[in-house]
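User: Predict the full complex structure for these chains.
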Amino acid sequence: MSSLLSVDDLSVQLAPAAGRSGESGSIVESVSLRIDRGEALGLVGESGCGKSTLLLAVLDLLGPEMLRTSGEVLFDGRNLTLMAEAARRRLLGNDIGVVFQEPTRALNPVFKVGEQVAEVLRCHKGLDKRAAWSRAVELLEEVGIEQPALRARDYPHQLSGGMNQRVVIAMAIACSPALLVVDEPTTALDVTVQEEILALFRRLREERGMALLFVSHDLALVEQEVDRVAVMYAGSLVESAPTPVLFASPRHPYTRGLLDCQPKFAAPLTRLPEIGGVVPASDARPLGCSFHPRCRAAESRCSAELPVLTTDEAERTVACFYPLGGSQ
Amino acid sequence: MADRLGPRRALRFAFVLLMFLYGTAVFAPLLASDLPLTMVASNERAFFRALRTLPIVVEEAEAKLGEGGDSEASVRAVRLRFDELQRGLEGERHLQVEELRQAFEMLVSDPSASGSVAERTAQLRETLGLEGAGLEDSKLVAVRSYPVFASLTPLDAFWMASFFALLFAPFCLPRRAGPWLLGSTLLITLSVGASSSFGRADLLSGLKADMTSGDVRVESALFVPVPFGFAETHLDEGFLPPSWARTEEQARNDSIDVRAGEPALDSLQRHWLGTDALGRDVLSRLLHGGRLSLAVGLLAALIVCVLGVVLGTAAGMFGGWVDLCFLRLVEIVQSFPAFLLILAGVAFIPSGTLHPAITIAIVIGVVGWTEIARLVRAELLRLRELELATAARALGIPPLRIAFRHLLPLALPPVLVAAAFATSGAVLTESAISFLGFGIGPPVPSWGGLIAVERDASVWWLQLFPGLFVFLTVLAFNLLGEGLRGSLRAGSGGASAMGGAE
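Assistant: Here is the predicted structure of the two-chain assembly.
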């Protein structure tokens, strides 16, 4: 099966700037990903591990303070990184839809939500004002906003967070993209709304057959939504496996740790296990495996050499010298 | 001051003051003019001039038609003469033009009618009253006319209409009032600035003199509240203090002649604010002078805002070498003392290429855009880091469109405040330029120019009142700016939604 999006050896560094001396570490370090047509991939990791930066780098939306130092991104066989600016713009929004974390921040406070959805259609589909508006109202209805014609005339501050997120989703799917990229789409929402939004994603995927790149720090959330999970730590991928496999038997100690941190309803109430320490900053990564200072299974080799991703079984890769065996 | 008033009251105060100032400017021709609003009168001079030409034309017609029969060429030649005569009379509207036309048509275009050419011309003479004694007063008809309105340009009328529209817009269009208000204010500016009504008012200024001398026989006339033209001189009335500050003997100067429609010498209405060296009414000049001063102020502020917003947005959004060039340009412009640069600019643009008001506005605008541009650049530097900018880029919207359509509206509140201050600054600058004699010259009045006319303290009314109007304008725009700043800050609902960083 040909992959829809494939990211190969992507690295991002802080751009060298005046006043900052010395070599800065990579924020994202040689990450490779693959999403097939219609597949849903979850990208998980702690805050600060480079998930969002990776996402921006994939879409080529990095700010001036960050620099992609290596790697290429292929979308549907076309190289995004070599593409001309205008061609990439046509791709973004048209073939790739993006939903950001905070809906109230992604929307422009001075425009009606209907106008903002229509704006995407006008830019990409060349619809005139009226046609774009009526299509925008249809889209709002499709993402489950009641009385869409009325709500389209509201400004973002008049709508709830969940409604705003639906508007953002409507903007992302306006041009029927083949890939929907969502960055922590439910973090800013409360739990009941969260479930509604996730249901919406499921429905949209079923109806449109979109591929999904779901970025989240919440493993439990990802479990229900995606076919495959990639775990990131300190800028690199540490493990990637089909969802049921990964949850049943994680092989990387970090993944194991993350799973242990999930509260379990069946288990008796005990103190939740935690992973000691924090993610090291990009310029203070330890030598060797960057997880080893926090790893309970670390040996001397871990602090000297960098483990590489190895595919040990079918569709399952892990970067660890001492992967955990079987289910525990 | 706005701190004491509070933003709402400052805004209301500014609005009332501006409405007053712009109202007087827009309606100046209806407030102060040497033309009557309406009059019933006959123009004897024009009538006699017409009558003197008529016999000649008729004789010519007789000769032409008589010799060449009904040849096309001679008919055309006669028709030409008549058209000319008719046009001359139509402007005056005191002669029975319609009658003349009918008689003429009978003469030329009815060759089959009974009688020779001689008979027909005789008939024409009779109709026009050229037979016998010749010129008869009975043919002189007093007609009602509206000289002030006739002297208005279409633009003037348009501004008056839009002023009312602007005044009542907040009540008629409660939801879309903001943009409407802004738009019509700008329109008023442009129009007042562009209207060339100054020349027009002088065109008919002979009328009052004719009325006084009796060349125009007046049956009734209604003058505007201040019946003095802004360029109307009363050489024997120079340096007259305001009527309420006048001594008995100044009020009873027999050598001054009172023209038609003017109040009596000792009445309070005669020169409310005194006269200048040439006996021109200061109040009239003030009212008309506001048109130019205010228009220059707004036009300059408009240019400042457009230049500043466009350049600042481009620099803030694109950074890199665009930003570099922008910053250097700003530094170059700012390194010159602004006022000297403006003076030099005004002096270098050859007079006559543009209306002096527009020249001054352009120069002020071109020199003064830097502050707003830096403001907008700073705003955009902040705004482009917002998630909504990234989101827009992620949706594939072109950067130019993001900058001007998505981000610029968010940067506008501080620009609005700066624009209000820029306007007051421009009004002040224009006054200073005119005061120094580089601006709009006499006889066209502007506030700065009025102050400059006489710098002697003994004629205090020549400095006090124009100065007061400049002060009121600057106060109004500063209050507007303060009020906008206060209310935009208070209305932080938008600000927090803009990114929560506020």
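Chain A touches chain B through 34 residues (CB under 8 Å).
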